[in-house]
Amino acid sequence: MNTLEKKYGPVTATAMVVGVVIGSGVFFKADDVLNMTNGNILLALIAWVIGAFAMIFGALVFAEYAQRIEKNNGIVDYTEVAYGRRAGYLVGWFNWILYFSPLTAILAWVTGQYLLTVFSVSSAEHPMAVWWIAAALILAVYLINSIAPAFSGKLQVGVTVAKLIPLILVGIVGTFVGIKNGVSVSNFTAASAGVLRDSHTLSSAVVATAFAYEGWIVALTINGEIKDAKKNLPRALTFGALIIFIIYIAYFLGVSGVLPTERIMAEGDQAVLSAVTTLFGTVAGTVLMIFVTISCFGTLNGLILTNIRVPYSLAVRGLGPIPGQLSKIEKRTGMPLRAALLSTVLSLFYLFLWYGSLNQLFGRYIGIDEIPIVMVYGVYVFLYIWYMKHFDDLNLFSRFVKPGLAMVGSAIILYGGFSNESIGMYLLISVAVLLFGLVFYREEKTESHVNKVI
Q1: Strand 69-70 with 451-452, pairing
Q2: DSSP annotation of 359
Q3: DSSP letter at 328?
Q4: For a Cys-Cys bond, which of 102, 245, 253, 293 suits 52, CB 3.0-4.6 Å?
Q5: pLDDT at 84 over 70
Q6: Are 269 and 98 in contact (CB under 8 A)?
Q7: Where do the domains of the chain lie, and which CATH numbers do they carry?
Q8: Is 331 exposed, middle or buried (0-12, 13-18, 19+ CB in 10 A)?
Q9: pLDDT tens digits, 239-273
Q10: Is 431 exposed, middle or buried (0-12, 13-18, 19+ CB in 10 A)?
């Protein structure tokens, strides 16, 4: 029987939400957000808060969906119920081909970079080392998730706990130090004077935070494997989103309490290392980089755990390429190994594409990180609208305020994304990939696979 076993509890589901979101983004997007606001730390903080709106209230909306609809890939199920089989398929195809697969490649690359830093290896002296490490990580993590899914779930919980330690320490200690030494006051005083001048930068900064916040949706891809999913998945989405918001704001305040804004911007991705070294010493800085590497690895594990299941969730509907093969569950592992193999190849392809983009093999830079996130928020908006129209048994706040606030956050992200000068090319490529996906679409011949409970 081609059905995945219910093997994950609420702790693993929450670790999926927290562990996938809190990865590399919070470390290497902090300086990007500041740069986009022209160094205005107050606007940067506002951007982090607005970005969280899209996540927190979006998670609350999908928590309601999760209580009513359950199959084997939440967002595909919800779109199928709301807008039909073809729409559900295209969302699943988009998530697999243009969303989770490229993000997996990027996270493998980022993890490889931090791993080199731990061993004091310069990527400038060994430029290919990070790419070979990234490829090895992709292969290794796909293998672990394919043959030992229970272990992968426990691994996700473990690395999630480990990654929270440095963030909490930097947030609490850095904030107190910043208040004591006056750095926080100096940073925010200077920022307040330029808020109106730099306010036009806010939407682009929110898009940058979206990359750091994104990933909470991945827990929906394992809803068919979560024990008592209609109760545990909503809890995981809600508590996970709140934990992420608190940790991110605390971390940002902590770093800005230790380093002047100009230094954070100048040091870029290494600012977190400088902040920890300033707070706790050189040895602690090295230990932090180990935790950062673990953090990125946890996100990579969660993305790969997800990316194995997306083609499977399409295949069990009779959709996508070779559904008869991709829907097969191996008795020994209880996993769709053929789907895992195809996703592995796709992730390695995107790693090559990312390599070519950064090394100008294609004549120009091709971003594969932020634009897919912007587009997926467009999908969320349609689901928020359907939610407000059809969930008429809810009270006023739950039916309209929650999705309304989620839509506000999503709209700002969409506006910032469409302000990108290359948005036309990215949309053209995305539409072409979606249209190609229709080659593998088949009309339903039997009763719907989705369990509708509205």
Answers
A1: antiparallel
A2: T
A3: P
A4: 245
A5: yes
A6: no
A7: 10-441 (1.20.1740.10)
A8: exposed
A9: 888 888 888 888 888 888 888 888 887 877 677 77
A10: exposed
Q: What is the pLDDT of residues 21-68, one digit of tens each?
A: 776 667 667 777 888 888 788 888 888 888 887 788 888 888 888 888
Task: Please report how many Cα atoms fall inside a 13 Å half-sphere around the Cα of residue 394, on the Cβ side.
Answer: 20
334 three-state secondary structure? coil
User: Burial code of 246-284, b = ≥16 C-beta within 10 A, e = fewer?
Assistant: ebbbbbbbbbbbbbebeebbeeebbbbbbbbbebbeeee
Helices (H), 5-148: 10-21, 25-28, 30-36, 41-68, 74-83, 85-94, 101-118, 129-147
Structure tokens at 210: 């979206």
pLDDT class for 449, splitting at 50, 70, 90?
A: very low
Phi-psi region of 126 (alpha: psi -120 to 50; beta: other; left: phi over 0): beta
Computed over every residue of the chain, the mean pLDDT equals 82
Q: Among residues 450, 449, 443, 436, which one has the least CA distance to residue 96?
A: 436
**Block residue for tokens 């993305």:** 303
Query: How is residue 323 written in tokens?
Result: 């559904």
- pLDDT tens by residue, 89-112: 999 999 899 888 998 998 899 889
- CA distance linking residue 196 with residue 24, whole number of Å: 31
CA–CA distances in Å: residue 173 to residues 91, 180, 256, 267, 351:
43, 11, 12, 21, 37
pLDDT of 437 reads 92
Structure tokens at 170: 């930097």
The span from the CA of 309 to the CA of 77, in Å, is 13
Amino acid residing at 411: A
pLDDT surpasses 80 at 210: no
Instruction: Indicate left, alpha or beta for 332 from its phi (over 0: left) and psi (-120 to 50: alpha).
Output: alpha
Measured in degrees and rounded to the nearest 5, phi and psi for residue 204 equal -65, -35
Question: Which residues does 108 contact at the CB level (< 8 Å), separation at least 6?
Answer: 134, 135, 137, 138, 300, 347, 351
Mean pLDDT over 219-229 rounds to: 73
Could you report the per-residue pLDDT of 313-341, keeping only the tens digit for each? Answer: 899 889 999 999 999 998 888 889 999 99
Tokens standing for residue 103? 């993000």
pLDDT tens for 274-303 read 887 888 877 777 787 788 788 888 888 888
